[in-house]
Design goal:
This protein has a 5-stranded antiparallel β-sheet with strand order 3-2-1-4-5. The protein has one domain. By secondary structure, it is an alpha+beta fold. The protein starts with a strand and ends in a 16-residue tail after the last helix.
Length: 98
Amino acid sequence: MSQVLTANRLGPGEVVYWSATKGWTPDFAQAEVMDDAVGKAALEGAAEWIRRREVVGAYLFEVRVEEGKATPVKAREVIRAAGPTVRRDLGKQASGAQ
């Protein structure tokens, strides 16, 4: 199973995704897609970021990878990646980032 690690940045509450090369990023497209073993290790590593109060609520979620592009499997994660479902002029979707 392919998965991505997500959390919320503690200050602004922004949804972020883990990238081993970039750290926490708000851009889902930059998230690291991991297998079970790597995902488990990344989730365990997120405990340090939580302890330092930089992120909260870290967890792994399943993604589908097609043609090299990851897509969240569940609607909740699609919404978290895109931004609010109302006022499409606000949030991540306003700038075209998905």
